[in-house]
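Ticket #322: bound-state structure for manganese (II) ion.
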Amino acid sequence: MNLTDLVKNCKRIGISGHENPDGDCAGSCCGTALYLRKVFPDAQVDIYLEPMQECLSRNIPGSDTIIHDVNENEEKYDAFIVLDSIPERIGEPEKLYREAAVKINIDHHMTNPGSLEAQCYIDGHASSACELVYDLIKKEQIDVDIAKALYVGMVTDTGVFQYSNTAESTMRAAGHLMSYGFDHSAVIREVFFERTFLQARILGAALSGAETALSGKYIFCCFDREMMEKLGAERKDLDGISAQLLLTEGVDCSVFFHESEPGIWRASMRSVLVTDVSRAASLFGGGGHVHAAGCTISSGIGEAMKAIRDEFEGQLRNAGVI
Ligand SMILES: [Mn+2]
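RESOLUTION: The complex was predicted; output attached.
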């Protein structure tokens, strides 16, 4: 795909990514917008995203230009780019994408099937949407702001270059981005490791409430509404819990369940080696990657928990691990 050529005659370009944007989603959207604004100074480039964690907006240049609400009478965009997501998961801006003459989808979720009506650049093995954007842009146009935005996404989705999606290409791209001179240590500390005191306490509660199953290969924790309210937990305070559970010795897969609204549950899943958690997530219409996935469960949480556990059990047995 030649992104620059695809949008070169477009006067109005829209950009969006998935709901509840993480560092990769926001970093890839803002990095792409900063790049296009620089290369096509006459074009209007708008970013649509839901509000994000303050540590992300603080570290992602261009995030101050994000539009949160779609204007009812918004003029059509000549091109609309969906990053780090399928178009169906971007929420309200999806209608702007549908109206655009040129539709572009850049994603690294292997559950994204692509679409014939869009120009797709989808690589389920890429570390991050930000690495794909890095591939697609002209390197001589990168500046410190674009570099920092894309670096945030790589740090987020690779768990600071730890997860198995980290490739030599990721490290080379990240190394090149670092050469623009932003404070990369501060990015990693603020974006990945720091928690608010409330988040630290919530994590503590999740670790104390965790249980293991399947001969210690599966660890999970469940927060119902009562627990969420007792802790004062909101969705933004729950990132990283399933990843932290996964750091338990001997464990291969983890799920953190929380009741986001009465009767509506979110499951965030992670795995180390054997388990493909995206298969469990897809049982409930969710998706993601082999080692990181999620889904929403809108009825029968008890049965859903059992179905997920059964899926893991089948996979672990097939692999001869239990
Ligand atoms: Mn991503």
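RESOLUTION NOTES: The CA atoms of residues 74 and 212 lie 50 Å apart.
TICKET STATUS: resolved
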